[in-house]
UniProtKB/TrEMBL annotation:
Domain FAD-binding PCMH-type span(s) in chain numbering: 8-183
PANTHER family, A to Z: XANTHINE DEHYDROGENASE SUBUNIT C-RELATED
Top-level taxon: Bacteria
Name of the protein: Carbon monoxide dehydrogenase
Annotated InterPro entries: CO_DH_flav_C (IPR005107), CO_DH_flav_C_dom_sf (IPR036683), Diverse_Substr_Oxidored (IPR051312), FAD-bd_PCMH (IPR016166), FAD-bd_PCMH-like_sf (IPR036318), FAD-bd_PCMH_sub1 (IPR016167), FAD-bd_PCMH_sub2 (IPR016169), Mopterin_DH_FAD-bd (IPR002346)
PROSITE patterns in UniProt: FAD_PCMH
Parts of the chain that traverse the membrane: none
Keyword set, alphabetical order: FAD, Flavoprotein, Oxidoreductase
GO MF annotations, alphabetized: FAD binding; oxidoreductase activity
Length: 296
């Protein structure tokens, strides 16, 4: 194990590259201040800013168990180490979860998408991130792994608060599992940021199912930057169920959802401004999912 002294900005930390999962469990058991690192695209900036000071970084990068994309008839399983750029381009993901592939194109810039991992983004739990919102809309299941084995957590139970997830000490995220999109599935994604690639000021990821007569069978919308943790837009499923969705219905349902949200003020604007942005992005993503054409 090499010691890296913080000669640049991060505080000093030890580093170990795990060769297998037992190395991970041993390192985490031995040091309660240890942290795992995947692509490093969130953790390294946090270290450099000294917002985190783990004593040991356990690099997951060599673990084949956390890689790969597997598709069965009904489930798409994506390994935690799958990089953002692969989520964007992988043919199985594009076919079985096009909303997730689209969300990947909105994450940061190509350099970051070449290093960052899906699992890192999910475990980081930033409410302004694209993947958590898409995974909530897609009704994903997070596969947590520890020395004791695997544990599955619904996306709706996974994101708890500011950068806090349901992962427990000694657990890592191994994969995410998604229901495969059907021919009746439609989706929409909309995001507003100061510049393309910046973190979202507001956004929405929508996954819907329609019956043959065009009426809504189900709908879920994950929101970006709408609260402390990634969350679903409230009230959509009941309001849309069995109805043919038009712009008037969307406008009313979005207004009701917004009344139940309280995004805080931050450097990007007042709470009221941010609520307006989230509402507009939700209207656009819903209009896109229900194929109502471009919103003016
Ligand atoms: C300039 C810049 C702009 C960015 N813009 C965006 C953006 O617009 N949208 C966006 O979503 N993200 C953005 N990011 C963050 C980027 O997407 C990260 O890649 C991602 O958040 C974390 O993935 P990672 O693999 O790099 O994780 P790391 O940085 O390695 O880890 C992040 C956290 O997750 C934990 N972790 C990592 N993997 C696992 C695992 N398998 N199990 C358990 N815990 C794990 C680590 O311990 C750490 O706490 C940006 C980053 C930068 C530097």
């Amino acid at each position: 194990m090499a010691t890296i002294v913080g000669s640049v900005k991060p505080p000093p930390f030890d580093y170990v590259r795990a060769a297998n999962l037992d190395d991970v469990w041993d390192a985490l058991d031995a040091d309660e201040d240890a942290k795992v690192i995947a692509g490093g695209q969130s953790l390294i900036p946090l270290l450099s800013l000294r917002f985190a000071s783990p004593s040991l970084l356990v690099d997951l990068g060599a673990l084949g168990e956390l890689t790969g994309v597997q598709l069965t008839d009904s489930v798409l399983r994506i390994g935690a180490l799958t990089r953002h750029c692969e989520v964007e381009r992988n043919a199985a993901i594009r076919a079985a979860a096009p909303l997730l592939a689209e969300a990947a194109t909105w994450v940061a810039h190509p350099q970051i998408r070449n290093r960052g991992t899906l699992g890192g983004s999910v475990a980081h739990g930033d409410s302004a991130a694209e993947f958590p919102a898409a995974l909530l809309a897609l009704d994903a299941t997070m596969v947590a792994r520890s020395r004791a084995g695997e544990r599955r957590v619904a996306a709706t139970d996974f994101f708890l608060s500011y950068f806090t997830t349901a992962l427990e000490p000694g657990e890592i995220l191994a994969a995410v599992e998604l229901p495969v999109a059907r021919s009746s599935s439609t989706w929409g994604f909309a995001e507003f940021a100061r510049r393309r690639g910046d973190y979202a000021i507001g956004g929405a990821a929508v996954q819907a199912e329609r019956d043959a007569d065009g009426s809504c069978r189900s709908v879920r919308a994950g929101l970006l930057a709408a609260g402390p943790a990634p969350c679903l837009a409230p009230g959509l499923a009941d309001a849309f169920a069995g109805r043919v969705v038009d712009r008037q219905l969307i406008a009313g349902v979005v207004d009701e959802a917004l009344a139940r949200l309280a995004p805080g003020e931050n450097v990007h604007g007042s709470a009221g401004y941010r609520k307006d942005v989230i509402g507009e992005m939700l209207r656009r993503a819903l209009a896109s999912a229900f194929e109502l054409g471009e919103v003016a």
